[in-house]
Amino acid sequence: MKKITIILSCIILFATSCNSPKETKKEETAAPKYVVEAHSYAQPNDAVVKHLSLDITADFEKEIISGTASYTIENNNASEIILDSKFLDILKVEADGKTTTFTLGEFDKNLGQSLKIAITPNTKSITIHYNTTDKTEALQWLNPQQTADKKHPFLFTQGQAILTRTWIPIQDSPQIRVTYDATVKVPSELMAVMSAENPKEKSVNGVYHFKMKQPISPYLIALAIGDVEYKAISNRTGVYAEKSMLAKVHAEFSDMEKMVVAAEKLYGKYAWDQFDVIVLPPSFPFGGMENPRLTFATPTVIAGDKSLTSLIAHELAHSWSGNLVTNATWEDFWLNEGFTVYFEIRIMEALYGKERAEMLALIGRQDLEDELEGFKDTPNDTKLKLDLKDRNPDDGMNSIAYDKGYLFLRTLEKTVGREKFDVFLKNYFQTHAFSTMYTEKFIAYLNENLLDKNNITFNTNEWIYNPGIPSNQVTIVSDKFKNVEKTLQQCIENNTADTTVTKDWTPQEWVHFIRNFPENMEIKHFEMLDKAYNLTNSTNSYIAMVWYEQSILHNYRGNNIDEKIEAFLINVGRRWYVSTIFKAYKKSNKLDEALAIYKKSRANYHSVTANTIDEILEFQK
Questions:
Q1: Among the CATH numbers 3.40.50.12780, 1.25.40.320, 3.30.230.10, 1.10.260.40, which is that of 487-617?
Q2: Could you give the C-alpha distances from 373 to 41, 401, 581, in angstroms and in order?
């Protein structure tokens, strides 16, 4: 026995010595395909889902989704596969068509539970039979009164960051990409649409079939069900909306095809075939959500003059930065949003000129300054690469990722030159298409493909791993904003408003005007401006939001503004807007007023918004 062992060892040693140095090095340094991340129980290097087949029914009376989620899996000789589940009722699990055992792990308030499914090393597929519950966070069921047309109920999902696990049992990590198909059964008077190939008309029987052939991260699987109609803008762009809003939405977003063309000229072909937008009821918690092929959008951007459509440019930009090349973990979220803000500003510059783009960029810079001030006691939260272990990834979804990320890229552009930077970005998107990216991998790619080859030294690590903003930041200026500041000063000094100066202002100029009210501004100035410009009754939601914020902070009570603010907070669920206003109440020591309104408005909010406001107001459910 000992002799045989020696002979075998010699054979193995000889075979190894015959390998080329390159092959040996590759074998020694081979890394797992998936990185360890803090926000999923999945162990994808052992067993990972590759394709999802959904077969579900939406029951509007019970307000549950029920059915099956079936997966083809890539199995690395594993005895179990682990999925993420939160607030789901798991009824039965099958492996290769035969019932198998499963266990649910200990519940975590952020992550939910691990769903461990017994498999064999040869298992190729699993099927989970399940129902959602009344605690499911991704879903918002709306009654007819909460919709525009007020005739039929509505349902939409919101998966980012880790809420997809609350309506589908899945390996809910952004680094795990899946293709999917779905059969969705809904009431016959409603239409179902998904982040996939979509219908343009209602089916007769309320059954819809979907297919997403490109692999996407789980947070991008999205579903909306409502009494909506479709209207094309071009052969690859169009809009869904309720009937009473369809014409307005179509007019507002009529530049969508131009945006796609502008984006393609910058960074390569649009990879998702179709770019449509659905405008959801006002409780939708975000400005937009970049679900592939079908962006979800808030009705608060329908201003009647295309003035807030930079949001559409932003969601379109995600088709490259975020959907095509995706952050591998939520600690790398800046790789999604910093790139997307940069791309958004470039699209807006290409279509509407540098001055408008610079105003958008400067407002973002101001948002960043406010965020830095808010994090003065927790400076580590101002790093681009975050440590979110044992925290909700939602904690990192703020202006740091968006606007510090943008400022980093904008400073890089200035350092290396726009022409070289554009070539780099285009190659970056094409090289890493349909894959995921983490910060350290990006830094290596940046060094090799931009900085080192052009002999450029740049303080990349300081930007990414240090708190605050480095001193080499690019300066963003706007002549129009300087004129706005001058106008504001004259208004205050003379206690009068010149409406001829402001008649052609964009919402960005109005926002800058209002945001720059001095802390000691007197009530008489509020009264004068409100009388001249009727700001309390502004039909532009962005202008209204900043005016309401300043009115609360300065205790302006004229023009029935308290009633207007309450109605705004009850009817609008966009988290950015309502959190800004509730923070103003808190800062002004008007918590009782805020809570009185919140008790009326909370039921209209998606869980994403409600959870944020609960924390701001320390609200006890």
A1: 1.25.40.320
A2: 34, 15, 17
Tell me the pLDDT tens digit for each residue of 109-159: 999 999 999 999 999 999 999 999 999 999 999 999 999 999 999 999 999
> Quick one: CATH architecture of 47-302?
Sandwich (2.60)
Distance of alpha carbon 242 from alpha carbon 240, whole angstroms: 7
Q: Which residue has the tokens 């062992």?
A: 5
Tell me how far apart the alpha carbons of residues 173 and 162 are, in angstroms, rounded to a whole number. Answer: 8
φ/ψ of 248, rounded to 5, equals -65, -45
Q: How far apart are CA 457 and CA 404, in angstroms?
A: 20
CATH number of 320-465: 1.10.390.10
Burial class (CB in 10 A: 0-12, 13-18, 19+), 439: buried
Please check the confidence at residue 600 and state whether its pLDDT lies above 70: yes
Q: Between the CA of residue 346 and those of 69, 263, 352, 358, 459, what are the distances in Å?
A: 40, 8, 10, 10, 24
pTM of the model: 0.93
pLDDT, the chain, mean: 94
Q: Dihedral through CA 110, CA 115, CA 116, CA 118, nearest 10?
A: -170
Residue 455 zone, left/alpha/beta (φ > 0; ψ -120 to 50; rest): left
Instruction: Please say if 315 is a catalytic residue.
Output: yes
Which of 447, 434, 449 is CA-nearest to residue 326? 434
Q: Per the residue annotation, which of 242, 252, 315, 358 is the catalytic one?
A: 315
Query: What is d(CA 610, CA 615) in angstroms, rounded to the nearest whole number?
Result: 9
> Is the per-residue pLDDT at 20 higher than 50?
no
Closest CA to 480 of 458, 520, 507: 507
Q: What is the pLDDT of residue 30?
A: 55
- Separation between Cα atoms, residue 380 and residue 353, nearest integer Å: 36
Give 11-58 as a DSSP string.
HHHHHHHTS-HHHHHHHHH---SS---TT----TTTEEEEEEEEEEEE
Whether 257 is catalytic: no
DSSP notation for 128-160: EEEEE-TT-SSEEEE-GGGSSS-SS-EEEE--T
Catalytic hit among 402, 533, 585, 598: 402
| Cβ pair 357, 348 in contact under 8 A | yes
> Which pLDDT score, from 0 to 100, does residue 6 have?
37
> Could you read off the pLDDT of 214-224 as tens digits, one per residue?
999 999 999 99
Record the tokens describing residue 131, joined without a space.
Answer: 């129902």
| Residue 503 three-state SS | coil
Decide: residue 228, CB within 10 A, 0-12 exposed, 13-18 middle, 19+ buried: buried
Above pLDDT 90, what percent of the chain? 94
